[in-house]
Amino acid sequence: ADVSDQKYVMVVPISGHPFWVPIRQGAQDAADQLGVQFEFTGPVEFDNIATQNQMEQIALTQPSAFLTGAFDPSMSETIKRVTEMGVPVATFDSDAPDSPRITFVGPDHYNVGFQYGKKIVELLQGQGKEEGQIGLLTAINQTNLQVRIQGLKDYLSANAPAYEVVAIEDNQGDDQITAERTKTMLLGNPDIDGLVVINATGTGVATALTELGRKGEVMVVASDVFDPIVCGIKDGAIQTTSAVNTYLEGFLALKLAYEYVNNNLDGTPGADVGVSVLPPKIDPGMFFITKENADSFLVGSCS
Amino acid sequence: MTAPNKVVEMTGIEKRFGPVEVLRGVDFELYENEVLALLGDNGAGKSTLIKTLSGYYQPDAGQIQIGGQAVSFGTPHEARDHGIETIYQDLALFDNLDVAANVFAGKEKVGGGWRKMLGFVDRKAMRNEAREAVSQMAINIPRIDQEVSAFSGGQRQCVAIAKSVMWGRKVVIMDEPTAALGVRETGKVLDLIRTLKSHNLSVIVIMHNIEHVMEVAERAIVMRSGTRRGTVNLNGPQDRESHDEIVKMLM
Amino acid sequence: MTAPNKVVEMTGIEKRFGPVEVLRGVDFELYENEVLALLGDNGAGKSTLIKTLSGYYQPDAGQIQIGGQAVSFGTPHEARDHGIETIYQDLALFDNLDVAANVFAGKEKVGGGWRKMLGFVDRKAMRNEAREAVSQMAINIPRIDQEVSAFSGGQRQCVAIAKSVMWGRKVVIMDEPTAALGVRETGKVLDLIRTLKSHNLSVIVIMHNIEHVMEVAERAIVMRSGTRRGTVNLNGPQDRESHDEIVKMLM
Amino acid sequence: MTLSQTNTDRLGDAGGFDFKRLLLSRELIVGVMILITAIAATMLSPYFLTTANIKNVVIGMSIEMIVAIGLTIVLLSGGIDLSVGSVVALSAVVIALAFNAGLSIPIAIAAGLCAGVVVGVVNGYLIAYVGLNPLITTLGTMTIFRSAVYILSGGYAMSSIPGSFKALANGDLLFGLPNLVVLVVVLIVLFHMAMWQNVWFRKFAFLGGSEMAALRAGINVKRLKLMGYVICSVLAALGGVVVVARLGSAFPNTATGMELRVITAVIVGGCSIYGGRGTVLGAALGVLFLALVNNILVLNAVSVYWQGVASGCVLILAVLSDAIINRGKRS
Amino acid sequence: MTLSQTNTDRLGDAGGFDFKRLLLSRELIVGVMILITAIAATMLSPYFLTTANIKNVVIGMSIEMIVAIGLTIVLLSGGIDLSVGSVVALSAVVIALAFNAGLSIPIAIAAGLCAGVVVGVVNGYLIAYVGLNPLITTLGTMTIFRSAVYILSGGYAMSSIPGSFKALANGDLLFGLPNLVVLVVVLIVLFHMAMWQNVWFRKFAFLGGSEMAALRAGINVKRLKLMGYVICSVLAALGGVVVVARLGSAFPNTATGMELRVITAVIVGGCSIYGGRGTVLGAALGVLFLALVNNILVLNAVSVYWQGVASGCVLILAVLSDAIINRGKRS
Ligand SMILES: Nc1ncnc2c1ncn2[C@@H]1O[C@H](COP(=O)(O)OP(=O)(O)OP(=O)(O)O)[C@@H](O)[C@H]1O
Ligand SMILES: Nc1ncnc2c1ncn2[C@@H]1O[C@H](COP(=O)(O)OP(=O)(O)OP(=O)(O)O)[C@@H](O)[C@H]1O
Ligand SMILES: [Mg+2]
Ligand SMILES: [Mg+2]
């Protein structure tokens, strides 16, 4: 069958953010392999109302399927509405479990936070610290990061109560602000020996440690994979960054949506009585990038 | 013949702006149904004095009585409620609005019937009344529904005069109403002041042109450097003696 | 005795604002070293005419010649470069600045020595010159370094006059310069106009007060409804004949 | 030359309707731009002129429409209010909390609107009675009340909203028109008429034209200013009510950045940021215009990276059209 | 009564220095607030008054300082520029691209600054010569140039910045003072002196005081306005140079929302949004004040959710202090 006129649309907020680049790439690669069209869109702001409006508007053009992240519980309503309009939705990165989405490809963010906790404790213990203070950097307007923080805190209280979160700062998602806030946080809490960056602002933290001359002294667990962060790892300012395999999120979400749209899995026993033909949840896996393997993740070059 | 009643009495008015003492204890009185001229060189404090009367400034010291009752105006709103209407020297028009809106600003006419219930204004009536009012001054205005920012100096002044004449109930204060007016228009405004008097209002008029003062005013108060220099009773345009007395006080 | 040269010659000037025809083909000439009075009732188009000369408005039709050369001013900047300086009727002062800044706006004095190299202004010199300039008008100004927004009507007018007098090189245009001035101050400004003449400048002065016109002007042009009604040569304050002629034209 | 002699004949009159002025009015210019955009959209995308899409656009912009009405009043009166986005969120969170506490729908709505009154009184008091700069003051309250939202919600999205409340926003009680659309249209018509005709609402235009002249004309300037901010905040709070009803959840970062978007739309619709000029209808058309432009870009799948270029250019073109058409008229 | 007779004695003169006026000057008020904040901070946190923290605050605010200088000029002249944040990002990306293309440091810097000139000319031309509303125009160019950043960078964060370039920002060539601090101080002093004393720069204040009076005073208003926007954009582009040098990377989302933050600081420092009032020194003090407030909140680990409340209140207090001290003087 000719599928070249099938269109899969990815809708995300803050669409200009580098975070989406690998996800987008994965979806694009899958689309190319399948010979379908792929389109990436969304508002430039972090605005749930705008994102949802946009999705409902696009639904009218009857694309084959949507790929989106549910960064807000109210996304469930929108997913329901567009599904009723005949456009199935596959979610990635953040799930909307009580919506009729066809599948979800993404990490369990609580677990990501849990892993952060494990990693930072491991790093601190590696330095021979039997107890420690930890600072967190996040963007408070990205409320979906709350779950990660919860996971991290839960790990600490359950498994390593000697390590404690002493400060949480809002970096507004900006590296400049991160640099300044991180420095201030470290100056105000000189006993902090570990930092966990919940969002993609590791560069600012690296800058802060470099400027304070405390590179390698304060352990840093960052999030996401961008050149500047990878360079920070090579440079020694950041110990590790958590990499959810976001490429796979895009790739699998599109591929699964394709299978669904083309009824390729209708042979699944029970499909006719409402058994989900797709796995409800797929974890693409996460791993930590370190100095040893950093080079494989560099897109451009460091100075 | 009984002594005439004082509509306005101000005693010992003082006003300073930072280091500058603008009024240094001025006494002032306005009788019922009188046209009073306020004279004085530039910067004497005339405008400041009438602004304290119209509630725009609050005096630092001194009393104000209206009709024998002590008052103290926090805003021009309150003075207006006491029947005092003022044309300020800088006119203070709404540049972005037309003549009718300027004349009726803050006191627009509500229409009848269903309009009354909704508080809807009656534009047509306002426009007609405004046209009537400015036409009394024989001023040449090309379009009455134009923004007043496009008006000539004299046209603007006439709009301000029309406004105060329409609203004054007890006292009308005019700060240099004829400064920008031509010969004919000035004549009309002097007529208008006489009409106000004939309607039982009192008028305070600030003017630099002594001939015009002699034509309309019955009494003149002369100010100098924030104090009251003196008072002259006037007896019509031919009264050379008073004229000379005023000139002497001014020099 | 040769015929005097024309400094300014305007022919067939027309100007309309939307539907309103404000100038309908006005001819105008100003001779060298002459004090010319421009008269007319309110809204006659006097201010509009001089604004086309000062580059603030561009005429819809007609020619302007300065010293025999055809010019066309796009902005007041260009007229100023031709030595034409104007006091506008609405003064157009910088309310947030003091007297010196107002007088020197756009043409501030650069200091000597190292200041010159850096283009640094000489505040002290400017303040002194500004003080000198306004004091010529015998005006009573409490503090010269105060924002002019606090000034009285007459004080503001004197600041505007000081400015034009300081900068005029060929022609000074004054749109109702004495409207807000007291008797004494008006006398000073009339003196000032004579001084300008004695410095070989030409002056165009718009005034409603015919007595004052007779005192300073040598010639009067009367306008009416956007056209030139006529011209009268004046021979000093006692020239009753010319006076009556002007009054006739105005009525 | 008696005083009663009038010369009304010299005072030209519009003689009824002034077509030229209507032609150059900002509302009409935006109206024409909307028409052009709509025609272009119809040609560019087969999906544009469908009931579903129109409904989508109209419902999508309803919250901004409601907020725009209030902002028009504040801008017209010479002020500005940056806190509207925070008020939308605050009202949404307050309503969600009210539902959490088991309160009924009317009481929850009242609680949300009350939040608006509180912010409005704070803004208005500081600006009108204390005399603070409106930009800074409302920037301050914007920050404060956004924080309040985070504190009240604990940073989490709340979604225990009764279905009957959601049905209010998503239903269509009247002639099959969505309730939201009916609400918005009624509000626009009401406020437009009031601002144009009602003796009290008209005072805002006087205030914005010249505060000093308004004061001297005997208008109670301070109280009027305060009321302007209160009305604006209450309308924003109503926007919050609609957000909750429509989305079925209250999200603490709801409507971040909305203030700038709505102010832009209002100015495109002919409001002056310096006060004294603007109508509710114009503001509504401004919101509609920007929503349509967005809709076209989305329907035609313009690349995200180029969407910014397109919408920026449209914005500039919108004010450019006004500048060109009214060239020379104002200056 | 000859004409040469002067009566200068009646013209009161300040007689040198006007202490009262200095006391009430906005700069001094902000200065005092900074002092109070600093004293409070010292008492609240032992870490506040350490070289490391001071250096941190000063370096942290350097980019906003540079942007604030340009914004002061534009605000003073009666305009506004919302595109500064986009210009910072644009310049940063252009520089990164130049390095990617193997260009040398001076050429890369020049390329970044050129991006600033381009934006400045576009803004200035549209506002000064076409006569468009500055708020809408710069909102439009803000959107357009942010898109340009995404298009140029392809959405990637770029980090192939030569180490010698990074060393420029992070080094300390002069007396051990960080280069960034030296640069910022020099710029502030230069521009403050120029705006205060230089005959050309002083024209901005005239323009902002009254555009009509400036025009009538023979100032080439259009050209001056254009130049204001160009200077502002070039300074913002310089901010972009500093960002790249400091972070060693160009991130397309850099400086989002910076415009509002800096405008706030500039207004806290005494600039009027209506033009005609404000100094570079005041603006710099405004930036410093807000940076200090932030610093205290973070040093004392105030909960993020309460930080908004605190900084909003401080903002309002800052303008309140001015209103109280100058009560009755202006109105
Ligand atoms: N708000 C103010 N702040 C400071 N000084 C002021 C203020 N208002 C007026 N003054 C000063 O007070 C004095 C009197 O001003 P006022 O306007 O009352 O004079 P006036 O008699 O009306 O003069 P004119 O005939 O020129 O209108 C002037 O020297 C003026 O500079
Ligand atoms: N910008 C404008 N737009 C529309 N009409 C205007 C404009 N400027 C002036 N007018 C009109 O042109 C006519 C002439 O105005 P102008 O100011 O030249 O009169 P004038 O002779 O100076 O009067 P006055 O003695 O009152 O100052 C007036 O009717 C005025 O309303
Ligand atoms: Mg006065
Ligand atoms: Mg005139």
TrEMBL record, chains B, C:
Domain ABC transporter span(s) in chain numbering: 8-250
Family matches, as Pfam families: ABC_tran
Keywords carried by this UniProt record: ATP-binding, Nucleotide-binding
GO molecular function, one term: ATP binding
Transmembrane segments: none
SMART domains: AAA (SM00382)
PANTHER family xrefs: CARBOHYDRATE TRANSPORT ATP-BINDING PROTEIN MG119-RELATED, SUGAR ABC TRANSPORTER ATP-BINDING PROTEIN
Protein name per its UniProtKB record: Sugar ABC transporter ATP-binding protein
Organism ancestry: Bacteria, Pseudomonadati, Pseudomonadota, Alphaproteobacteria, Rhodobacterales
Listed InterPro entries: AAA+_ATPase, ABC_carbohydrate_import_ATPase, ABC_transporter-like_ATP-bd, ABC_transporter-like_CS, P-loop_NTPase
Automatic annotation (TrEMBL), chains D, E:
Keyword Cell cycle set for record: no
Gene Ontology terms, MF aspect: transmembrane transporter activity
Its membrane topology: Multi-pass membrane protein
InterPro entries registered for this protein in UniProt: ABC_transp_permease
Pfam family, one: BPD_transp_2
Gene Ontology cellular-component terms listed: plasma membrane
Residues that span the membrane, as ranges: 28-49, 56-76, 82-100, 107-128, 134-152, 173-194, 226-248, 254-273, 280-298, 304-325
Keywords: Cell inner membrane, Cell membrane, Membrane, Transmembrane, Transmembrane helix, Transport
Main location, first listed in the record: membrane
Superkingdom, natural source: Bacteria
Presence of keyword Manganese: no
Annotated localization: Cell membrane
Record CDD domains: TM_PBP1_transp_AraH_like (cd06579)
Function: Part of the ABC transporter complex LsrABCD involved in autoinducer 2 (AI-2) import. Probably responsible for the translocation of the substrate across the membrane.
Subunit architecture: The complex is composed of two ATP-binding proteins (LsrA), two transmembrane proteins (LsrC and LsrD) and a solute-binding protein (LsrB).
Record protein name field: Autoinducer 2 import system permease protein LsrC
Species of origin: Sulfitobacter mediterraneus
